[in-house]
């Protein structure tokens, strides 16, 4: 377990946080990777526990949002087949408020520690955003 937790550091997590609809979010595939699950299993767990995931905690991207995100960050094209991203469904994203919920529904040894690391990264990103916003205003 110790080796798995070393992989998840704050800087790596911060690189997985995007701004969509004015909210800082993390893609379902990145959440799955951090929690050591397959994306489809994270999404199944979310749907089985939908009452824990209101719209301000988790939402599905629109086609335009996903295309824009892929355009901005080519690294999102993780699974490629003849130049096309393989994704059967549009991704879900988890907001800062919703990111701790998967830890409550996913049952593995590292879920709680990963959740704490992710929440800390969101907090650091929010502080940085506020500092930049304040600097630009002045």
- Anisotropy-based shape: globular
Topology pattern, helix = H, strand = E? HHEEHHEHEEEHH
Structural class, by secondary structure, is: alpha+beta
Query: Averaging pLDDT over every residue, what do you get?
Result: 81
- Work out the helicity level: 40-55%
The largest sheet has its strands arranged as 1-2-6-3
How would you sum up the major sheet? 4 strands, antiparallel
Radius of gyration: 15 Å
Report the strand count: 6
What percent strand? 5-15%
Number of helices: 7
Give the N-terminus to C-terminus distance in angstroms. 46 Å
The tally of structural domains comes to 1
Stretches where pLDDT falls below 50 for ≥5 residues? Answer: 1-6
Describe this structure in words.
By secondary structure, this protein is of the alpha+beta class. It has helices spanning 2-7, 10-14, 28-35, 39-48, 63-72, 101-105, 111-137; strands spanning 17-20, 23-27, 58-60, 80-81, 84-85, 92-95. Strands 1-2-6-3 form a four-stranded antiparallel sheet. It has a two-stranded antiparallel sheet with strand order 4-5. The longest helix is centred in the last third of the chain and has 27 residues, at 111-137. The radius of gyration is 15 Å and the shape is globular. The relative contact order is 0.20. Residues 1-6 have low confidence and may be disordered.
């Amino acid at each position: 377990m110790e080796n798995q937790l070393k992989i998840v550091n704050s800087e790596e997590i911060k690189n997985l946080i995007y701004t969509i609809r004015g909210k800082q979010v993390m893609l379902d595939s990145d959440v799955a990777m951090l929690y050591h699950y397959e994306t489809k299993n994270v999404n199944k767990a979310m749907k089985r526990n939908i009452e824990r995931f209101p719209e301000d905690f988790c939402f599905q991207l629109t086609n335009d949002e996903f295309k824009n995100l892929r355009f901005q960050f080519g690294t999102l094209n993780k699974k490629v087949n003849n130049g096309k991203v393989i994704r059967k469904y549009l991704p879900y994203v988890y907001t800062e408020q919703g990111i701790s919920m998967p830890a409550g529904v996913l049952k593995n040894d590292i879920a709680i520690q990963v959740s704490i690391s992710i929440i800390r990264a969101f907090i650091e990103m929010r502080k940085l955003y506020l500092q930049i916003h304040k600097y630009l205003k002045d």
